[in-house]
Specification:
Keywords: Signal. This is DUF1929 domain-containing protein. InterPro entries: Gal_Oxase/kelch_b-propeller, Gal_Oxidase_central_sf, Glyoxal_oxidase_N, GO-like_E_set, Ig-like_fold, Ig_E-set. By secondary structure, this protein is mostly beta strands. It contains three helices and 59 strands. A five-stranded antiparallel β-sheet has the order 1-4-9-6-7, with no helix packed on it. Strands 2-3-10-5-8 form a five-stranded antiparallel β-sheet, with no helix packed on it. Strand 37 and strand 38 form a beta hairpin.
């Protein structure tokens, strides 16, 4: 598994002065924004005017101004004769005199002529941020092998805010050469058609929610969008001990095309398992619930070692080999080579697992512990581990239950080096329980948003915090983002406006095809007080826009996920009184009310490989296209959710899509392909299959990775002392099991506004519909059974002292 960290070095460039020019500089033409596009004007040293040497890594290289030109008398040849890592590239000089001026929000068509002797060459962009300076932007297009002069064109994404100039050129990152000439750059004309509202003014501004007529038949807390467009909903016992005791474990497959549900035989209690989609579209389900806590609270939840694969074609589960440890609430992240890595959760004895687990794509089984690098770290429950573009993992700080990990609460984990480097800046790290984290669109930007959260143990009011980190920075650190907008909260007597710093935990975050993020659902306290608020986060402006609100409560055990038609579906809610919300909501975002949708009328090939150029046809002009990985979400957590930009080469209604050569940006598997017009209106998705690491062309199967996150200054820790597990309190779920049935959650710590008296606590339980609560055993730690008749908050309890 190639997860090693790559260090980088930028080749220094000598400054250019006009006094050293051998001929007069060639200005850019009115249409072409490139100065000296054919290298005809000499510059200082051995590089043409307005061009500079750049690159990084361990390799041997040459830059040559050659007479083998497409037109004129000169071209640029960049050659690597030996490569361990890194690249070399001739770039437009990063200066005000040479780098083309661009306008934020606009797109630009780039073109050049080339010959190559290596399949490992790509058009690479850098941008000048008016605040942060020059920085890597993105790779746009991998160049095919070409023995004779060949034209390459590609359209940039929209220029990010704060960008005033760009620089670009061809990177060579495999042994061989690329010779280029006759560069062009033109601004794409603005679209001429304004958006056309096809709904009410409210719908066009804020979208709309519909509660579906058919309820979800299972108490599902796991939702996986399958590559056939259906949705796998996993319940297991559904947090219902009576179903566990009866051995009644359920799943269902929902078909959005006709609104039907099919009950699926489920072999084990997959309640609070982990899951991820494998390269071939099957679903790997790991661990689950071996046993509920004992009534006296002395034994907590237990995770089993079993693992299963769900096949969408047969709609059946098949057992794999066992994991090395039990993992109730594990993480699950697919890697660039198709392997799956997993951390955290509870073992069979209710202690915390410190074992890292690896499922091999090649062997189709979990690897023995001795084959997997171990730091013996306890990452908690559902730790959000997001794959970075160089193969490292970013632990965002989002997790489930109680406090965060020690230190800053966020870290970069390097599997190859077997090190953990703390990352600073996460606000209130111990109140990010059931926050949500997403890799913001596009994945090439390597920015992560973390929002909301609380703490099930201390039970404060959930917060409005958001944090954003740019993993392209040398020493990345979270910075505070805008607060989550406030909505209404039901404190037991109907919704009232949120006040002060009231926010939400159990929040869901969903990537949308227009490049924005929908956040919805949540609650103010541990399994109580639903919050009704939905908004859209725009990564370009880093702002929230409140939109229409899901009418259903969506707290603990709820899910939200993107459907292939561009709508968002939400399910579930399991408050502390043990009830379950079987209603299903579907959100139609505003983009579905902005006129006709573009259509992908054909996809030439649905089997894609890294570095491909793939052609589609559309019925009218589009502004962008992207791949969105289908959801596999539970408990606010889907670390594999990502939106991968596909730069375009446009020829009328024929669109060539340029697929990333980096499998860490788009891990292998099935993706939803969306085409989006200039008004942000998406097509219905087509399904395409991106193949695994065997498709990579570079001899060492490493991706083209640029300088970023190369100098994190946080505390670095290597493997700790080998140990069996981490001790974990049986009350980790924030529930006092001395009262009621196992699926009832009487909080170990009531909200701060509830006085620590029997009367106040009993009134809170009554307001939140807990009903009759039997006392389990002789202990009454919360003082709810003052008359000792075995019934908490029974007759006379609230009046006794």
């Amino acid at each position: 598994m190639n997860l090693r960290r790559r260090t980088t070095a930028l080749l220094s460039v000598a400054g250019l002065t006009s006094g050293l020019l051998l001929t007069a500089p060639q200005p850019a033409s009115a249409a072409n924004l490139i100065k000296n596009p054919g290298f005809e004007t000499a510059g200082a040293g051995d590089m043409p005017y307005c061009w500079e040497k750049s690159g990084w890594g361990d390799n041997d290289f040459t830059f040559t101004t050659t007479a083998d030109a497409h037109t004129g008398s000169k071209a640029m040849k960049v050659e690597l004769t030996r490569r361990v890592d890194g690249d070399r590239k001739a770039l437009i000089t990063e200066s005000a005199a040479c780098a083309p001026v661009v306008t934020p929000g606009k797109q630009y068509d780039l073109g050049l002529w080339y010959k190559t002797t290596t399949p490992d060459a790509a058009i690479t962009l850098f941008r000048h941020d008016t605040t942060a300076g020059w920085q890597y932007w993105t790779d746009l297009k991998t160049l095919d092998l070409a023995g004779s002069w060949t034209e390459a064109t590609v359209r940039t994404p929209e220029v990010p805010a704060g960008t005033d100039r760009i620089s670009w050129g061809v990177s060579v990152y495999g042994t061989g050469s690329a010779t280029t000439d006759d560069y062009t750059m033109d601004q794409v004309p603005d679209p001429v058609l304004p958006p056309e509202c096809t709904g009410t003014a409210e719908q066009c501004a804020n979208g709309k929610w519909d509660v579906l007529p058919t309820q979800n038949p299972v108490r599902s807390m796991h939702s996986v969008v399958l590559h056939n467009g259906k949705v796998l909903l996993i319940a297991g016992s559904g947090n219902d001990e009576s179903m566990f005791e009866a051995g009644t474990f359920t799943s269902a497959v929902y078909d959005p095309a006709n609104g039907s549900y099919k009950i699926i035989p489920t072999p084990k209690d997959m309640f609070c398992a982990g899951h991820v989609q494998l390269q071939d579209g099957r679903v790997l389900v790991m661990s689950g619930n071996k046993g509920y806590p004992t009534a006296d609270g002395r034994v907590g939840y237990q995770g089993y070692k079993d693992s299963y694969i769900f096949d969408p074609a047969t709609e059946t589960y098949t057992k794999t080999n066992d994991m090395n440890d039990g993992h109730w609430y594990p993480s699950a992240t697919i890697l660039g080579n198709g392997d799956v890595i997993s951390f955290g959760g509870l073992r069979e004895d209710s202690t915390g697992s410190v074992a890292a687990e690896l499922f091999s794509e090649a062997e189709q089984q979990w690897q023995p512990l001795w084959k997997v690098n171990q730091t013996w770290s306890y990452w908690g429950l559902y730790p959000s581990m997001i794959l970075m573009q160089d193969g490292r993992l970013f632990y965002s700080g989002s997790h489930v239950f109680g406090n965060n990990i020690p230190g800053t609460g966020s870290a970069i984990y390097d599997y190859g080096a077997n090190t953990i480097t703390q990352v600073p800046g996460l606000q209130s790290k111990d109140e990010r329980d059931q926050s949500a984290s997403v890799l913001l669109p596009p994945a090439q930007d390597q920015k992560v948003l973390t929002l909301g959260g609380g703490n099930i143990d201390s039970n404060p009011e959930a917060n409005r915090l958001t944090d954003i980190i740019d993993l392209k920075q040398p020493n990345p650190s979270y910075v505070a983002g805008p607060p989550i907008p406030q909505g209404t909260v039901d404190l037991g007597n109907g919704p009232v406006p949120q006040t002060g710093n009231q926010g939400k935990m159990y929040v869901s975050a969903v990537l949308l095809p227009d490049g924005k993020v929908l956040e919805t659902g949540g609650a103010l306290h541990n399994r109580a007080n639903p919050v009704y608020e939905t908004s859209v986060f725009d990564p370009a402006t880093e702002t929230f826009d409140p939109v229409a609100v899901d009418p259903e409560a969506r707290g603990y055990h709820s899910s939200a996920f993107l459907l292939p038609d561009g709508r968002v579906m939400t399910t579930g809610d399991n408050p502390g009184n043990g009830s379950w919300n079987h209603d299903v909501s579907v959100y139609s975002p505003p983009y579905l009310f902005k006129g006709p949708r573009p259509q992908i009328t054909s996809v030439i090939d649905t089997e894609w490989t890294y570095g491909d150029t793939q052609r589609i046809t559309v019925d009218r002009p589009i502004a962008k296209a992207e791949l969105i990985r289908p959801a596999a979400v539970t408990h606010s957590s889907d670390p594999n959710q990502r939106f991968v930009d596909l730069p375009l080469s446009v020829d009328g209604n024929n669109i060539d899509l340029n697929v990333t050569s980096n499998p860490n940006l788009a891990p292998p598997g099935w993706y939803m392909l969306f085409a989006v017009d200039a008004n942000g209106v998406p097509s219905v998705a087509k399904w395409v299959h991106l193949q695994g690491p065997q498709a990579l062309k570079a001899t060492d199967a490493s991706a083209h990775v640029h300088d970023f996150a190369d100098a994190p200054a946080g505390k670095v820790a290597g493997p700790g002392k080998k140990r069996t597990s981490q001790k974990v309190s049986p009350t980790i779920s924030g529930c006092d099991r001395h009262y009621g049935s196992i699926n009832v959650c009487v909080p170990t710590d009531f909200p701060a506004e509830v006085k620590k008296t029997t009367a106040a606590r009993c009134e809170w339980l009554k307001t939140n519909d807990y009903g009759r609560l039997k006392v389990n055993g002789k202990d009454d730690p919360l003082g709810l059974d003052r008359n000792r008749d075995g019934i908490a908050c029974g007759k006379g309890d609230a009046t006794r002292r």
